Amino acid sequence: MESDGTSNLRVVIDEILKEDLEKVHAQRARQRGRSSQKELGHFQEITLLSHEWQLIKDLNDELKYFFLLTKKMEGDGPTGSAAIPEYLQLKNHLKKKSSSLHRGDPLHPMFVKMFEKTDTYLKEALECENLVISTILNPSFRLALFESHFPKEALEAKKRLVKLFEERKTQMVEKVLQEEHAKDTPANKENKTIDENIY
């Protein structure tokens, strides 16, 4: 174990080294700016310091989750039943991130805005009957997802499911009755008799 004095000393040394490195980077950038415009690359006269690169890395690490989620939802397979659970998981992730960061953190406003946007998309998804029913019919989620996370919407979702089931049941009964009725017509009886008397 390190003593507090040793860890404080390391922090001070790290800060001194960072400051020196930033000064060197700034000096090199100024020299490049004077010597040749062509050497500047696509960053032109902008010089990023080490702590700014760390912020960019942090941002990229956070955006990686959204990139993977987008790829998953754009995939070749059906994703309708995963939309509501993915939005819910994303909303919870963003809520944790925004509450764990202090307001002065550069990424905090991004998480707050993304949380608000995700909440809007989740509400829209909950209003889409196709997404609700496909989520309920997915064995991984069923109605339990709605009962645990969306108690207000759970009763309505169950009513939708029962209504669709009854409609489909009625359609199936009508189809069976029509097929039976079609079998009983005199023309079908004649055709059946002709088919039976081949010899």
UniProtKB/TrEMBL annotation:
Gene Ontology terms, MF aspect: DNA binding
Transmembrane segments: none
Entries under Pfam families matching the protein: hAT-like_RNase-H
Limits of the hAT-like transposase RNase-H fold domain: 78-168
The protein's name: DUF4413 domain-containing protein
The organism of origin for this protein: Puccinia triticina (isolate 1-1 / race 1 (BBBD))
